[in-house]
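As noted in the main text, all predictions were made from sequence alone. Below is one such record, for Mitochondrial pyruvate carrier.
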Amino acid sequence: MNTLRSFWNSPIGPKTTHFWGPTFNWSLPIAAVMDTQKPPEKISGNMTTVMCLYSGIFMRFAWVVKPRNIHLLVCHMSNETVQLYQLSRWIRSQSGTEVKEEKAEE
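Prediction:
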């Protein structure tokens, strides 16, 4: 019971934004994982790049903020991983499209 009480009253517990921010932020990597089932032609290269930059910046923030927010760090590391995968799918799709267009012109 003391462990639960100490977590409840801690500076990163459920009474703070250090807990609820990352909790709701998990919707980003969850949505990205669900998008991996979609065809790569539907991926927005610009938005995926922005999401990669966003997660990179907030990984740094989560590490340097006091108290250190590991929950937020793990959330953005997960999002960064999935977004980089999506970006690689988009790049492969774009390069494949250009090759197909060149063959069609010949």
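The chain has one domain: 17-105. DSSP finds five helices and no strands in the chain. These features were considered when defining construct boundaries for the mutagenesis experiments described in Section 2.9.
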